[in-house]
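User: Show me an example of a complex going from sequences to structure tokens.

Assistant: Sure. Here are the input components:
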Amino acid sequence: NAGVTQTPKFRVLKTGQSMTLLCAQDMNHEYMYWYRQDPGMGLRLIHYSVGEGTTAKGEVPDGYNVSRLKKQNFLLGLESAAPSQTSVYFCASSGNEGSYEQYFGPGTRLTVT
Amino acid sequence: RKEVEQDPGPFNVPEGATVAFNCTYSNSASQSFFWYRQDCRKEPKLLMSVYSSGNEDGRFTAQLNRASQYISLLIRDSKLSDSATYLCVVNLRDTGRRALTFGSGTRLQVQP
């Protein structure tokens, strides 16, 4: 049972480079989220999606774009990476009934030099 | 002011000790409350939900005080394996995004 998976696990980028982080879930969840986690800041919501084909801005969306072309996948793009985007990125998903529990992927550690 | 505030710790306790973590939240409209556990360099995982009447799961007890906007987690008979960061999490029952707001966590280190 894979749950939520993320690729890649680690990445080092130079300032100005672009990349896409992929999140996949096999639980048929409607809701998907991208967070970043920095020391002392907790998890902060970047973008989220309430269903296939939908995306919306979270708390810290600047510098990121997302797409949800398929229900099971949620992509996070960095068009022009900056050192301030050095962080651990977590994807999460949640079902559309009952508990608000979110299930997290293992994270992507991104360093921008 | 942060929406969810926690003492960052670390709390260093010996095995077998009882330890309590507290959390305050700023939004009185918050409706659902959770404790998540995050091991070093791992993803957060749900430890337990927190109900108004208080609830217990084995060695773990969670309490909610809506009037004071305060949540607590009590761990009895601490084990080495309890060493982790504990995240206080609240949900504002908003219109549709089912968003959770996370505290920055309290680190627990249980020592032999």
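The lines above are the inputs; the final block is the predicted structure for all two components together. Chain B has a mean pLDDT of 92.
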